[in-house]
């Protein structure tokens, strides 16, 4: 069973403070009287409204102390509307369905825009075996923590001459130290035993070398946590052959996307893996792996999208908001439905609709 725990960290001060013994970590603020929290809701494209609607139904059924401020955002928009950004800045938390990113054509990804504008520097995806869901490997419980703001996703591309395009990979010490510290602090707070840095420093000696150097420096501050390193191509081979050896993995941007999706496929599929994007002040929760997945017309027409990943992501959100008892109830209900096996969508080997899964989860809450 996956460890229950997503402690969203708030970093106060710069990475230059790593040498100090004090932990500059606190939790997200919330009203001391337990008042309901406002959450920005972006249903998104394709199956997004279907699965976010599932979350709304379950939250209402369990009387969770949250309410949603809904905004219609489409992946083909040129930019995220200003009122959406303001809402997230005000509420500090957002729940989001998939936003489609057009291929080519110079259209900027709204997913990346959100991460940059809100400085959501850490992507966290928890890939774990769900009891009752058969997979090739057992005892998989991997947390992939990925740097979210630079690397190959910096978006710095230009055509040098016709037929020649240059794309820049940007790695900075500040961002590398920041994500390394997040990974080690997450491991420390969640009783994780090991952090593995994924890299390609044998080829990209300066860029990935800087990332590794930063991870090594941070590792010295956490002597109780084992630290090791693995080249990304060997990492992929080890993931598909012996995934149980990994615990927390910290990666640059592109590698983390590949590693998280691979780990998700091994542990049961992207439809059941929760995740979130976290910054010092804000957090956006969404499907963990393949977060840009908006399904296809057939799934949408039959209303058979899998809501499990977003339901588990919303449990992460509840824990982030310091409502742990509600998060536990929701996780337990979802896992009970998966274990019983009667209500599953097609990607999990069943024939159920989204609503049938939702109804089963609500029944399991009672």
Automatic annotation (TrEMBL):
Gene3D superfamilies reported for this sequence: Isopropylmalate Dehydrogenase
GO molecular function: isocitrate dehydrogenase (NAD+) activity; metal ion binding
Gene Ontology CC annotation, any one: mitochondrion
Chief site of localization: mitochondrion
Location of the Isopropylmalate dehydrogenase-like domain: 38-361
Domain of life: Eukaryota
Coiled-coil region: none
Locations listed in the record: Mitochondrion
Keywords tagged on the record: Magnesium, Manganese, Metal-binding, Mitochondrion, NAD, Oxidoreductase, Transit peptide, Tricarboxylic acid cycle
GO biological process, one term: tricarboxylic acid cycle
Membership in a protein family: Belongs to the isocitrate and isopropylmalate dehydrogenases family.
NCBIfam families for this protein: mito_nad_idh
PANTHER family (UniProt xref): DECARBOXYLATING DEHYDROGENASES-ISOCITRATE, ISOPROPYLMALATE, TARTRATE (PTHR11835), ISOCITRATE DEHYDROGENASE [NAD] REGULATORY SUBUNIT 3, MITOCHONDRIAL (PTHR11835:SF79)
Functional note: Performs an essential role in the oxidative function of the citric acid cycle.
Protein name: Isopropylmalate dehydrogenase-like domain-containing protein
Organism of provenance: Rhamnella rubrinervis
């Amino acid at each position: 069973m996956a460890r229950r725990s997503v402690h969203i960290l708030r970093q106060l001060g710069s990475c230059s403070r790593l040498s100090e013994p004090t932990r500059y970590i606190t939790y997200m603020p919330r009203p001391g009287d337990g008042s309901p929290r406002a959450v920005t809701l972006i249903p998104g494209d394709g199956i997004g409204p279907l699965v976010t609607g599932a979350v709304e139904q379950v939250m209402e059924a369990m009387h969770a102390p949250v309410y949603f401020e809904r905004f219609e955002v489409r992946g083909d928009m040129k930019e995220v509307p200003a009122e959406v950004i303001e809402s997230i800045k005000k509420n500090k938390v957002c729940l989001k369905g998939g936003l489609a990113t057009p291929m080519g054509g110079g259209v900027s990804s709204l997913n990346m825009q959100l991460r940059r504008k809100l400085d959501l520097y850490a992507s966290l995806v928890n890939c774990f075996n769900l009891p009752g869901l058969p997979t090739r490997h057992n005892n998989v419980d991997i947390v992939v923590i990925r740097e979210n703001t630079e690397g190959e996703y910096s978006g710095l591309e230009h055509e040098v001459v016709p037929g020649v395009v240059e794309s820049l990979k940007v790695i900075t010490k500040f961002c590398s130290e920041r994500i390394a510290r997040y990974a080690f602090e997450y491991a420390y707070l969640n009783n994780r035993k090991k952090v593995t840095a994924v890299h390609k420093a044998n080829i990209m000696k300066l860029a990935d070398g800087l990332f590794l150097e930063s991870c090594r420096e941070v590792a010295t501050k956490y002597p109780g946590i084992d630290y090791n390193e693995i080249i990304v191509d060997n990492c992929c081979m080890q993931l598909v052959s012996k995934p149980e050896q990994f615990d927390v993995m910290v990666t640059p941007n592109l590698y983390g996307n590949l590693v998280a999706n691979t780990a998700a496929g091994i542990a049961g599929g992207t439809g059941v893996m929760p995740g979130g994007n976290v910054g010092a002040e804000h957090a956006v929760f969404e499907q963990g792996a393949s977060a840009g997945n908006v399904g296809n017309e057939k799934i949408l027409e039959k209303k058979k999208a899998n809501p499990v990943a977003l339901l588990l992501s919303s449990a992460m959100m509840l824990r982030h908001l310091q409502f742990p008892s509600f998060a536990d109830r929701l996780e337990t209900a979802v896992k009970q439905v998966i274990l019983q096996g009667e209500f599953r969508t097609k990607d999990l080997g069943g024939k159920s609709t989204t609503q049938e899964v939702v109804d089963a989860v609500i029944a399991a809450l009672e």
